[in-house]
Amino acid sequence: MSLDKNDVERIAHLARLQIDEADKPEYATNLSNILDFVEQLGTVDTENVDPMAHPSDATQRLREDVVTETNQRERFQKIAPQVENGLYLVPKVIE
Amino acid sequence: MEWETVIGLEIHTQLATKSKIFSGAPTAYGAAPNTQACAVDLGLPGVLPVLNHEAVNMAIKFGLAIDAEISPISVFARKNYFYPDLPKGYQISQYELPIIGRGAVIIELQDGSSKTIGVTRAHLEEDAGKSLHEDFHGMTGIDLNRAGTPLLEIVSEPDMRSAKEAVAYMRKIHSIVRYLEISDGNMQEGSFRCDANISVRPKGQKEFGTRAELKNINSFRFVERAIDYEVERQIDILESGGEVVQETRLYDANKGETRPMRSKEEAMDYRYFPDPDLLPVEIKPEVIEGIRKLMPELPDTKKERFIKEYKLGHEDAAFLTASRDMADYFEAVATQSAEPKLSANWIMGELSGFLNKENREINQSPVSAEMLAGLIQRIKDNTISGKIAKDVFEAMWNGEGDADAIIESKGLKQITDSGALESLVDEVITNNPKQVEQFKAGKDKVLGFFVGQIMKATQGKANPAQVNELLRKKLSE
How many CA atoms lie within 13 A of A20 on its CB side? Predict the structure, then answer.
């Protein structure tokens, strides 16, 4: 499977990555190689193999439903670039 | 051409846990902005999510209630998108292995028939925060209190064929989550909201038409209106030779119409993959069995029991079991008054009328079940007539005390002293010779006139049955 420049741009956009124009052909080649490798894996017969969700055999430990976190808004907001009325301010998101 | 509507719903219901799905921050509604958002909810580096046990139990309860498959192993996945209401850059959700698999609910339609609606799956995920777009010097304000609140997303099969069916299904799911006490179901606060997938096709055609998705509808009324509008819109397009575009649309409740969301927002590729921060969740059969034992009686079962135990009609039983609070209220009144039918009538009539007028829920009624049972007992033992009882009810509603206190203080006791009534009857007969003649000439209806006169004279406190009997006796003398 071969990715072109447009695919690379789209993937970069979805991941919010800014990439140099000059690097795009190389990314396209490298990503295509990865997909080729995955395609190669696809030829293996996995009929009776359960999909692996996690490399560890352990299962999730659960937390009791109790409130353990106190309000630390002031501490968190001290390191935020901009706050107002207790809100975090971010560049305008268009609805 | 005749068209058929096809609807599937995705319902998001907030689970009523004390803490968030992956952190120990509280979930209470209405707190000051960001006072309930901890390091995990903020997506700070180095934090790890830990799954809330209660959220899992609640999902299992729902699964049991709709007779669904409960996955022995389920997996959390990252749904990747960049939006500041979830600062991690992804929402933790479930994709390939949801906790709840295929199930079904039965809805009842207006013509009395019922229909089974399939539930494809239900999965656990975290809610996002809120973006406030008022003017913050051209910036957007973010409140992350809601971020990380547990949600159960319930996905239906495309089994509904009209807006009415969709509303009936939504109400049924709402009723179930309320019965199970796994969600407060508060739609104003956004605890229960839905997305609707809608398409139309020529009647008889097997393939589905192209669908549009309506996002974030948060009231039963809006669901019906939004779907009706959208169906009209799609039929208009098709009948004028156009094609429906697959897109996400928003329902504007003020304008009563749907409009497309910006195409940029839907050009999403969520790139789901298993969340490496969370291990697969294992649910052992004994855990499911343990929860099964704690399951409350659900609306369908309760309705059948009400019909049998209290000899209620089908419609009455359906009304009284629509919510658990309503059903509990009815049972308390019926048991204490020992008059189930009368209790049902008063709850569905007078009480519901007052509740609707003031837009209150049953649990906000100023007339408690005990008070209503007390009133019904006074009707039953003939202390007051049904008509006077309505005045007493209104006085109870206005906080003037219980039935006995009001009857006493207002002197509303029925006149059952036959001597006093007899002289009144005599008086009315003497004063109205014309009507007496008419009655004797066979005009039976005139009896109502006499009853009315006596009721007027006693301000409604005479026992109607007794008055009738006395009148007939005197008039035929």
Answer: 3
Phi, psi of B301 (to 5 degrees): -65, -40
Classify A90 as helix, strand or coil: strand
8 A C-beta contact, residue B250 and residue B259: yes
Paired tokens of A76: 């968190």
Contacts of A56 in chain B (CB under 8 A): 279
| Contacts of B155 by beta carbon, 8 Å cutoff, 6+ apart | B8, B9, B10, B119, B120, B121, B122, B123
Alpha carbons B443 and B435: distance in angstroms, whole number: 9
* Residue of B44, B279, B284, B291 to mutate for A, most A C-beta atoms under 10 A: B279
pTM: 0.83
Contacts of B121 (CB under 8 A, 6+ apart): B98, B100, B101, B102, B155
Are the C-beta atoms of B329 and B362 separated by less than 8 Å? yes
Contact B194, B166 (CB under 8 A): no
Question: Alpha-carbon distance B303 to B315, whole Å?
Answer: 10
Q: Letter for the amino acid at B273?
A: F
Tell me whether strands B247-252 and B212-217 are parallel, antiparallel or unpaired.
parallel
Interval B7-38: pLDDT, tens: 999 999 999 999 999 999 999 999 999 999 99
Q: Which residue has the tokens 């971020």?
A: B147
Mutate to test the interface with B, among A17, A56, A63 (most CBs of B within 10 A): A63
CA-based torsion, B358, B300, B107, B226: positive or negative: positive
Which residue among A71, A86, A90 sits closest to B140, beta carbon to beta carbon?
A90
pLDDT digits (tens, 9 = 90+) for A6-36: 999 988 988 889 999 999 999 999 999 999 9
Pairs of CB atoms within 8 A across A/B: 129
Pick from A86, A91, A95: which is nearest to B133 by CB?
A95
- Looking at the DSSP bridge assignments, the partners of residue B215 are B250
Q: Are the beta carbons of B204 and B352 closer than 8 angstroms? A: no
Q: Cβ(B28)–Cβ(B20) under 8 Å?
A: no
- Residue B283 token pair: 């649910």
Query: Which DSSP letter does residue B44 get?
Result: -
CA terminus-to-terminus distance, chain A: 36
Asked if residue B186 lies in contact with residue B6, where contact means CB atoms within 8 angstroms, the answer is no
Residues in A closer than 8 angstroms to B42, CB to CB, are 76
Token readout for B84 is 């500041």
Element (H, E) at B339: none
B244-263 residues touching A, CB cutoff 8 A: 262
Phi, psi of B462 (to 5 degrees): -80, 150
ipTM of the complex: 0.85
Chain A nearest-CA distance from B64, in A, is: 20
DSSP B139-175: EEEEE-SSTT-EEEEEEE-S-B-SHHHHHHHHHHHHH
Residue B154, token pair as written in the block: 């319930």
Distance CA B317, CA B308 (A): 10
Contact B139 A86 (CB under 8 A): no
